[in-house]
UniProtKB/TrEMBL annotation:
Protein's recorded name: Uncharacterized protein
Key words, A-Z: Membrane, Transmembrane, Transmembrane helix
Species this chain originates from: Geodermatophilus dictyosporus
Transmembrane parts of this sequence: 36-55
Superkingdom assignment: Bacteria
Amino acid sequence: MDDVDLEVSRELERRLAVIDDEQRRDPHPPFPRSDLLVLVAIVVVSVVVGLIAGLG
């Protein structure tokens, strides 16, 4: 293994360590909050429209 391969390997290990550290400090929720709010709003609107159509 020459010096270039060793340097590339070290840089890759350093970058992976940084990514791993960032994920530990700031884990992302499995479902983004904004998407969840939009999904709840769509369900509520659908139920209200269904109730209005059912009464009409």
